[in-house]
Amino acid sequence: MTRTAPSSGLVVVDKPGGLTSHGVVSRMRRLAGTRRVGHAGTLDPMATGVLIIGVEKATRLLGHLALTEKEYAATIRLGQTTVTDDAEGDVTASAPAAAVAAVTREAVDAGIAALTGPIQQVPSKVSAIKVNGVRSYTRVREGEDFELPARPVTVSSFTVQDVRPADGALDLDVTVVCSSGTYIRALARDLGAGLGVGGHLTALRRTRVGPYDLAGARTLEQLEEDFAVLPIEDAAAAAFPRWDVDADQATLLGHGVRIPTPELAPVPHAAFGPDGRLLALVEPHAGQARIVAGFPA
Q1: Which of 65, 203, 280, 292 has its CA 20 to 30 A from that of 273?
Q2: Same domain, 137 and 263
Q3: Which positions fall inside the Pseudouridine synthase II N-terminal domain (predicted)?
Q4: What is the rounded CA–CA span in Å between residue 31 and residue 35?
Q5: Is the dihedral of CA 80, 178, 158, 162 positive or negative?
Q6: What is the pLDDT of residues 173-183, one digit of tens each?
Q7: How far apart are CA 47 and CA 27, in angstroms?
Q8: What is the enclosing helix (H) or strand (E) of 234?
């Protein structure tokens, strides 16, 4: 196995099913030869697809990358409800086949329309959300009765690609583009509930996180053969608007000093020095650059 990549950067992994996101991080720590490895946005063990891994200094990008738009391909089964809102959990209710057969495409489209745009979503109880410092799924395992509050999320696009019968149920192949924090299995649950037949997720593949998609992703087997990272400068330039500063400004930013900014959009920007090195992620605030993550040499 060759290691010719820089020490700091991102790895776009095509996560296989059956492996946790933490399991992928563990593999990457071994391949990268460092424990300073993290990921941007958890994928459930059942899910596959794009998982962004940060190595060394690039771990400072992960919290901001996790907030970017995501895209998924999924299969929703109408007619069955599960305890986990996906195929990993036991079926808790099944609608009569006649009721499922009576669900029209018009009704499906109306249900999807109601779940598109800015919505309030109640996460699945087996999610990793913390309730009073304890993971929600831990409370479920301990038999605790509780409710999670709804949270605002945005579903930019929710599109049916195919509809087919499935042993008395109905499978929908869908694509979803959504904001960070959106639970696709909750969309499956709520769509089924709205149609009166129940629903859960049977397959999930994340196809994009921000600018990073499957075209640039590599499998664990490929990475075992030839481990490489996307250099941190290239990673930041792809994910954030670029702001080039002069030498004096670079020195000030390197010392954590807020400097005046031009008219920049109110989003994180990647500040680069005249030598092309990534200096910091900054946010414009009251005409100055507030450093949200620094990258000292």
Answers
A1: 65
A2: no
A3: 29-184
A4: 10
A5: negative
A6: 999 999 999 99
A7: 17
A8: helix 232-239
Do 262 and 290 have their domain in common?
yes
Closest C-alpha among 16, 217, 184 to residue 85: 184
Note whether 91 and 194 are same-domain residues.
Answer: yes
Residues 106 and 146 in one domain: yes
Both tokens of residue 255? 């010392």
Neighbour tally for 55: CB within 10 Å: 26
Give the H/E segment covering residue 23.
Answer: helix 21-32
Task: Evaluate if residue 141 carries a pLDDT over 80.
Answer: no
Task: Please choose, from the candidates 32, 4, 2, 1, the residue with its C-alpha nearest in 3D space to the C-alpha of residue 13.
Answer: 32
DSSP-assigned beta bridge partners for residue 176:
72, 158
Exposure of 262 by Cβ count < 10 A (0-12 exposed, 13-18 middle, 19+ buried)? exposed
145 is catalytic: no
Question: Token digits for 155?
Answer: 């579903």
Supply the range of the domain harboring residue 286: 240-294
Q: How many domains does the chain have?
A: 3
Indicate if 115 and 228 belong to the same structural domain.
no
Whether residue 89 contacts residue 173, with contact meaning beta carbons closer than 8 Å, is answered with: no
Q: How far is CA 116 from CA 2, 86, 202, 215, in A?
A: 45, 20, 20, 27
> Which two three-digit tokens encode residue 177?
């583009």
- Per the CB < 8 A criterion, the answer to whether 233 and 264 are in contact is no
User: Could you tell me the sign of the dihedral formed by the alpha carbons of 252, 278, 3, 21, in that order?
Assistant: positive
Pick the catalytic residue: 14, 44, 85, 171? 44
* 3-state class (DSSP) for residue 17: coil
pTM: 0.90
> Could you tell me the CATH number of the domain that includes residue 135?
3.30.2350.10
Are 59 and 181 within one domain? no
140 and 54, same structural domain?
no
Residues 210-247 have pLDDT tens digits of: 999 999 999 999 999 999 999 999 999 999 999 999 99
